[in-house]
Specification:
It is built from 2 helices and 2 strands. With about 50 residues, it is an alpha+beta fold. The protein has a two-stranded antiparallel ribbon.
Amino acid sequence: MAKKAVATLQTGNSGRAHSKCIKMVKSPKTGAYIFQEEIVLNDKVNEYFK
């Protein structure tokens, strides 16, 4: 089933217009660093990291 889900993302140009971004953020509660993952449009990648 995973292969089918991945294949549906790559049909046409819709799958290539997105990127998976991983940002390291400091937790306000513990002070430890956590990773936030999000799939964003290629045009909005710079805005995500600001």
